[in-house]
Amino acid sequence: MASPKAAKEGGERGVDPNLGVDYVVHYKIPENERAEAEASYVQLIEALTNVGLTSEVRPADDSSLLVFVKMASPDLLREQAFSSRLQDWLHGVRTSGPNASGDLATSLMEEPVSEAERLRLVYLAMVRTKEEGGAGITPGVGKWKYVASVFPLHDRKFNGAWITRLSTKYLLGNEDLDEIKDKFGEQVALYFAFVQAYFRALVFPAALGASTWFLLGSKFSFLYALGSCLWSVVFFEYWKKKEVDLAVQWGVRGVSKIQLPRVEFEADGEAEDVVTGEKVKVYSPFRRLGTQLLQIPFTVACVVVLGGFIATCNSLEIFITEVYTGPFGSILPFLPTVLLVTVLPAFSAVLTAFAKKLTDMENYETVDSYHAALVQKEFVLNFMTSYMPLAFTAFVYLPFGHLLTPYLDFWRAAAQMLTFGEKELSTQDFNINPDRITKQMFYFTVTAQIVNFGTEAIVPYVKRKLTKKAKERGIVGKVAEIGVKDTPEEASFLSKVRAEAELEMYDVTTDYREMVIQFGYLSLFSVAWPLAGCSFMINNWVELRSDAFKIATGSRRPIPWRADSIGPWLDALGFLSWLGSLTSPAIVYLCRGGASGSIGAASNVEAWGLLLTILLAEHFYLLVQMAVRVIMGKVDSPGLQRERRERFEMKKRMLGGKVPISGAIGSQGAVAMREKLAQSALHEEAGLGVQGSLEDR
């Protein structure tokens, strides 16, 4: 760390709010494994030093340490930045080539290093394998099992100003997204860009839904179903182009090609890379395919276990609320909810653990591919738990409600047996409640959103405030017990670091999941309550700012990873958009009672009418999708325009600024161009030589 005086002066100038620290390693030393932990600690310091990182240590409490890490020198940081940018250039991520003088190395070094890039490079220096020039530190794994966490420190001054700006702005501009990108990395910035684009796009379904509800005074509207289908297609295709524009603008287009290898990957052989010619570790795709086929029984298990349990709880809730009229009528309706809240998480936890185990068995080479496979399996679970209650009401209860009578008799008999009563239970005839699905949609789109906001933002904040002083006293006491006192200059800083070490890691996947599940409610079931779009608009304005608050105060600062797409969530959006084009018209047909318009009579629903509705809806979706893609293809993307311009300028500089206007350039022109191309090849070779020398150093 910087000296206290220098750090104080730097902080006053707004240069260095964290005393020069790049990362903090929270290192645990269990009392019963002290000797082993201390030996591993020595290896940790040596590994950091060998890759050019300096470290200082302070106590966290009586059983853990805080290891402060930073890059040893600005020159080493520039070398790391050059090596990373050269790799980007070789993989086509960066389109800029040699500068006006034809010097590739100087061109790559002209761009300043942002804070996010610096933190990413330092982190990679710690976690990359020794073969790749890193320290090979894998928190919680192997000999690094005592490394509890590795995290960068928050810039609290920036965070406070950032939250203030967001709370006073209705919409985020490009400068706001660039600021998030430079501070927290492209992955987090891309999430904020997605929420912002989704929020803007909600104007159409919100306006259409309000018009349908208030002007037409109806739900289950074919007009709204078609409009919702059109909107979901347009938004999905728009976002695909938007994320390409952002990737080009931020210089990360194609960065997914440069992925972080998984330490847990177990190769079964080596092969030659078809592009670079290097020897790489490989795993048989046929073996992986055999493991991936286990996803079929996994999906069936999700449907049977989660679907069956949710359907059972729904039928019990229908019996209690619409048939039973006996004692405790105001309390018993909470029984199905209690069952869902207590039992469903246990089922989900077991299936989630199985999904993780299955993904581990699939043995992916990179972190990104592993994460994408795990997200796909978890999405199946989220799909079942989120949409099954509404699907049961829309496709079973409303159109075929009278078929439920035998099952409701089962609950009547079961209740009679459990109460040991001689008198018949007080019940009434079962009648379908057409407002049931509307009330459910209101719960999922309003009540559940409010509850989620409270549990995600308010409850953790209050909990931290209530326990802050107790923790501070406990930590101070433990530090005093081991005979170490913080210096006055460092006391405030160390208190902040200890507090951040206790926070949870921020995971952008959780926030993406919330938005995608919400998109599914809108696409699949909003025909039952067209005001869902209005509710989501309000929620998402608050959600974006609460997520910023969560990042700034409720979690450790995220590692500034790069990303050029929202990843597997893009496939989930496409699937929900397509499925919504089938379910919305089907719900409208079923819940309007088919031919006679009577809800709840199965005989009024004709199979040919339902199948024809679904068939026409799917063809409408495909035609709309084709038309939208053709239209958007005609409109040139600003990002792709910029990319083509940069590539053209790069080739122009490589040719010395002489680009032929026509095809006939003459023999002298051809000779000159060959010389320029040869020179540019030498420059590229020199650039590769510089990379090699840097790696050797």
Report, as a whole number of angstroms, the end-to-end distance: 24 Å
Number of DSSP strand runs: 8
State the helicity in percent bands.
55-70%
Strand content: 5-15%
Count of helical segments?
23
Low-pLDDT parts are 3-14, 594-598, 661-666, 681-697
User: What's the arrangement of strands in the largest beta sheet?
Assistant: 2-3-1-4
Keywords: Membrane, Transmembrane, Transmembrane helix
Transmembrane segments: 188-216, 222-239, 293-311, 331-354, 379-400, 441-462, 519-538, 607-624
Subcellular location: Membrane
Domain Anoctamin transmembrane: 180-646
Tell me what the structure shows:
The protein has helices at residues 4-12, 34-50, 74-90, 104-109, 115-127, 156-167, 174-184, 186-201, 203-215, 222-249, 285-292, 295-322, 334-362, 367-397, 405-419, 436-481, 488-501, 508-525, 532-554, 568-591, 607-634, 638-654, 666-696; strands at residues 23-28, 53-61, 64-71, 147-151, 269-272, 279-282, 504-505, 555-556. The chain has 697 residues and is mainly α. The strands form 3 sheets. It has a 4-stranded antiparallel beta sheet, sandwiched between helices. Strands 5-6 form a two-stranded antiparallel ribbon. The chain has a two-stranded parallel sheet with strand order 7-8. The relative contact order is 0.12.
